[in-house]
Amino acid sequence: MKTTVFTVSLFLLFSFSIASAQLSKMTVGYGSISAAQLPVWVAKEAGIFSKNGLDVQLVFFKGSTTAVMALLSRETPISQVTGPPIVNAGLRGGDSVFVAGGAVIIDYWLMSRADIKTAEQLKGGSIAVSTFGGQSEFVSRIALKKLGLTPGKDVTMVQIGVPSDRLIATETGKVRAALLNSPDSFIGEKKGLYTHAYVSLPSQSTGAATTRRFIRENPDMVRKYVRSQIEAVHRIKTDRETAQRVLVKYLGPQDKQILDKTYDDISSDQKLPPKQYPTLEGLKSILDPLAETDAKAKAAKPEEFVDMTFVRELDQSGFTDSLYKKQ
In CATH, what number does 106-202 get? Predict the structure, then answer.
């Protein structure tokens, strides 16, 4: 009996070693601590990556601009990043593209302490964004335009990485106001911060990006990654408990009301579509303002910044629809 148990144990250990060896190792970057990163976090924590043959190590970069630099330097083969730095890199010759859409609507609040309630009071102060060239800076220009303010003239933009740090900087008076998204916008609202402008529009927010070179050299790894992302999105939409547990792990302890609000926001089909196509409309919304002063942006097409091959394969094969038929 002891010999049998020992033999079985060796067999299981050997089988596990083979299975582990068959996983393709991959370092994946992500450029923010926000709810929009939930698909990659769930894919990691729920074992979806490993189920699809990937051994993924997640690496955090302060801002999508930095994460895209790591992508282009081949430090990371895939990163979860926002649209503006991918577009900016592409206009300057980079070969980075979105392969899965992730979140395709942006929601940002320009918030200050409660005693600052007019655009005039913002003048001469600093506005906190994540990184220059990133999504929060892109949105800040839209928000400030609504208020009749001009960056560089009326206000100074400063880089303060993660949203939670921008929230603290606003509360303590280090900056006059900050661009915040969920859950920090909800936290700021609960603490009594004043909203000067709210910006919500279709845009390529946090999605999965890689390089055309990596796609050519490792198409199967990209295919497994996109499949994992689509499965993670399904898991988010159908398993509230797991999704919220993962949010707490990466965002830290949250007030229950704010956690519920954050989950409801990110899990909506409008913001996080089941089929995960990158949004051409959203990329156009990034290109249009750039086209006013950049000839390359004016000539560029949204299709230049995406590779739909893998989401289209999974859609046309019926895989994506099959996930939701199992409910």
Answer: 3.40.190.10
Which 8-state DSSP code applies to residue 305?
A: G
Q: How far apart are CA 146 and CA 123, in angstroms?
A: 14
Which of 269, 258, 101, 290 has the alpha carbon at shortest distance from 185? Answer: 258
| Residue extents of the structural domains in the chain | 23-104+204-325, 106-202
In whole angstroms, what is the distance from residue 276 CA to residue 315 CA? 9
Mean pLDDT of the chain: 92
Please give the Cα distance from 84 to 64 (Å, whole number): 9
The rounded distance, in Å, linking the Cα atoms of 111 and 129 is 11
pTM equals 0.86
Structure tokens at 198: 């709210």
Tell me if domain 23-104+204-325 and domain 106-202 are identical in fold: yes
Q: Is 165 exposed, middle or buried (0-12, 13-18, 19+ CB in 10 A)?
A: middle
Phi, psi of 199 (to 5 degrees): -120, 120
pLDDT tens digits, one per residue of 175-222: 999 999 889 999 999 999 999 999 999 999 999 999 999 999 999 999
CB-count exposure of residue 89 (10 Å: 0-12, 13-18, 19+)? buried
Pairing type for strands 78-81 and 207-211 reads antiparallel
Digit-coded pLDDT (tens) for 23-58: 999 999 999 999 999 999 999 999 999 999 999 999
Before 289, cis peptide (omega within 30)? no
Class of domain 23-104+204-325: alpha beta
The DSSP string of 251-293 is H----HHHHHHHHHHHTSTTTS-TT----HHHHHHHHHHHHTT
The answer to whether 89 and 199 are in contact (CB under 8 A) is no
